[in-house]
Specification:
By secondary structure, this protein is of the alpha/beta class. It has a domain at 48-170: Vaccinia Virus protein VP39 (Rossmann fold, 3-Layer(aba) Sandwich), CATH 3.40.50. 44% of the residues lie in helices and 17% in strands. It is built from eight helices and five strands, in the order ααααβαβαββαβα. The protein has a five-stranded parallel sheet with strand order 3-2-1-4-5. Helix 5 (79-85) links the parallel strand 1 and strand 2 (93-98).
Length: 185
């Protein structure tokens, strides 16, 4: 049996071939749009509500109540932020965050094509949002709360809001009693 060269062992463990094209430069838009359609279906299945209609109602409320510093706690594909920013009736600024770099890249691509109001789309590392204390008038969380420890998430959301600020949660909530009864079946 022939002993292998350490360099050959390393080449088997690591791929030293030239890098492949980054996904968001070639095929990302179609896949992300399909992803968003899946989110919309999952939202409807879990809440019984239409995803886009829910977002549009939140957008309408933001415009009617004249909120000017809006923080999107999970941009995802930027559906909420871009629908709000596209309205000429919205005079404010939107701060939109996510921890998924691929989704942020798609959100930035979408933002480059249809914006009236300024939107800041940024990456962040949990649990702290890169916003000063008492800064935002409104924080919006669409289908994100269930992914985090509730107390920590709400504490951070309230930290970034002005004292009279508002938090809108569009979320599916399942009581603990439902989990027990389902698992007992």
């Amino acid at each position: 049996m022939k002993a292998q060269n350490p360099r050959q062992d390393a080449q088997k463990k690591f791929n030293f071939s030239s890098p492949q094209p980054r996904p968001f430069l070639s095929s990302l838009p179609a896949r992300i749009d399909t992803y968003e359609e899946g989110v919309a279906r999952f939202f409807r299945w879990k809440t019984g509500l239409d995803y886009y209609l829910t977002i549009d109602k939140i957008v309408d409320w933001v415009v009617i109540t004249q909120q000017t510093k809006v923080i999107d706690l999970l941009t995802d594909t930027a559906t909420f932020a871009l629908r709000l920013a596209a309205l000429k009736a919205f005079p404010g600024r939107i701060y939109s965050f996510d921890n998924n770099v691929t989704l942020l890249e798609r959100a930035k691509q979408r933002a480059a094509h249809r914006i009236f109001s300024p939107v800041l789309i940024r990456h962040f590392q949990e649990p702290k949002f890169p916003i000063p204390d008492c800064y935002g008038d409104l924080a919006v969380s669409i289908f994100d709360l269930h992914r985090h420890p509730t107390e920590q998430y709400l504490t951070e959301a309230l930290r970034i809001l002005v004292p009279e600020g508002r938090l809108i949660l569009a979320e599916w909530l399942e009581p603990k009693s439902a989990k027990h009864s389902i698992s007992g079946i």
